[in-house]
Every structure is written in structure tokens, then in C-alpha cells.
């Protein structure tokens, strides 16, 4: 079974790294990347073969990791080389299976997936949705592309825009919060490297508590919050600045942008 990754930028590399980490033989992976220097970099780093995207398109399973705005042109390029029975997995934000199916030969099994960048370190979270003609075996093959780099769940396609707002874009919100905490620590007089180390380990520890205790986050937050203490003073300020409401409206904007991308803009 040969797997191809067409578009090997941030996300394409994250999935490629996951496949290699999961034990997939590099000789069974083709990369179709239009930037020659980027292709050469990945060939050297992972031992995969880099080929023109039209050649990559003949693989048993083809993962498309180009920008949503580049997907139509990419499908026009590769459609003549696709055939019924192949599995085509797209990670392009907003792009529906129905639309992709309309661009490729009948019988190609289309799966829409929304991964995230922690896939690069084996801790990704991906949501997958089947198109109109995907067998269980074909779905399992698509899932194996993503599960090598973290967790993968199946969701109804109408929920893909919401999932994008939570886990697809979610790492960016976390990194944004980290930046804000480090800057605030520096403002409070800590050296930048000290503030960075404190924030990183705090994030890692809190994430590990969430995963290992399986306790509701509000309970974990209360454990930190002594009555009349320091944390209560900080949380009151976060509420005063509307941080919860800001997350709600940011994630609605993310969902809406995913819907707009479906229309091609
Ligand atoms: N970056 C992220 O956190 C996530 C991105 N995605 C989706 O993944 C896709 C890729 O995003 P990124 O990796 O961030 O973009 P990127 O810009 O880093 O990578 C896209 C790559 O595709 C290549 N490319 C474009 N057209 C091509 C073609 N016709 N043939 C061969 N190569 C071609 C580009 O040279 C580039 O290397 C997007 O559709 C995005 O919606 C999904 C989940 C998370
Ligand atoms: O920002 C974007 O459009 C992509 C999709 C999800 C994460 N990054």
C-alpha cells in the first residue's frame, strides 16, 4: 500500500512525521510538494520519495494538505490520475466531501479530516467525516493516517466547522495564552527564560492533570483557588476583562470562517 501526501507544509509534515513514528516504511510514502527546496528537505529528513503531484496521485491513499484556496487547482491537476477505489483524504478547512467528490472521478472514497499541529509531536487530535461512498476498510485506512500522530475520532460532517474552532485552531489559542502569560511574567520582573520555563511546565502539568484525573476543569480550578486568596484575585480580573466571552466570540468567528472557506474565498 502506497500513501501519498500532496502539499507538505506544516500540516503535511506533521502527518508525515506521525506515519514514520507509527512505523510506516518511508519507501511506501510519496510526497508531492510544489516547492522543490521543501521537498528536498523532507526527503532528507524522512527518507521519503518526492515526486510531482500528478505522480503522487496514483498512490492507494492520497492525503491532500494544500491550503483551501489551492485545493480546486490541485484537484484539477490530479483528477486525471485518480481512479475509483482510491482513498482521498482532505485536511483543507471548510471544504466539503460533496464538493471534493464533484471534482474527482466517481468511486473515489473521499474523507474529510481536521487535524491539528500537535500531530508533529504525536499528540494531535483529528476529527474525520466520511463522504458518500466510503467502506469501513477505506475509512480505517484514512484514520490510520491521522491516528499515527495522535487521537482521531469520527464526527458527522456538519460538525466539522465547530470542531475546527475547538481543536483545529485550538493550539493557536493556547500558544496565544502562553505568550500573554510570559509577557505578564516579564512585566512582573521575572527573567524571560525563567517566565517561559514556569509557563511551559505549568501548562504541561495542568494538561496532564486534566488527562489523568478526568476531573471537570471547574473542580481543578477550585482546587487552586483559596477563598480570598491570590488566584481568586486573578480570576476576578479575567472575568472583568470578559475572557470567557472573548473565547466564545473568537470560536464563533473561527466556525464562520470555516463556513466561508467552503464557498471558496
Ligand atoms: N496549520 C494548521 O494548524 C492546520 C491546517 N489544516 C489545513 O491543512 C492544509 C495545509 O495547511 P498548512 O500546512 O498550514 O499550509 P502550508 O502553506 O504550510 O502548506 C501547504 C503546502 O502545499 C503546497 N502546495 C500547494 N499547492 C500544491 C500543489 N498543487 N501540489 C503540491 N504542493 C502544493 C505548498 O507549497 C505548501 O508547502 C490547509 O488546507 C489547512 O486548512 C488543518 C488543520 C490544522
Ligand atoms: O487557520 C487555518 O485556516 C487552519 C485550519 C485549522 C488550523 N489552521
From TrEMBL:
Keyword Amino-acid biosynthesis: yes
EC number, UniProt record: 1.5.1.2
Keyword Oxidoreductase tagged: yes
SUPFAM superfamilies per the UniProt record, alphabetical: 6-phosphogluconate dehydrogenase C-terminal domain-like, NAD(P)-binding Rossmann-fold domains
Catalytic activity: L-proline + NADP(+) = (S)-1-pyrroline-5-carboxylate + NADPH + 2 H(+); L-proline + NAD(+) = (S)-1-pyrroline-5-carboxylate + NADH + 2 H(+)
Subcellular location, principal: cytoplasm
Keywords: Amino-acid biosynthesis, Cytoplasm, NADP, Oxidoreductase, Proline biosynthesis
Binding site for NADP(+): 6-11, 65-68
GO molecular function: pyrroline-5-carboxylate reductase activity
Pathway(s) this gene product operates in, as recorded in its UniProt entry: Amino-acid biosynthesis; L-proline biosynthesis; L-proline from L-glutamate 5-semialdehyde: step 1/1
Family in the record: Belongs to the pyrroline-5-carboxylate reductase family.
Name recorded for this polypeptide: Pyrroline-5-carboxylate reductase
Species of provenance: Nocardioides baekrokdamisoli
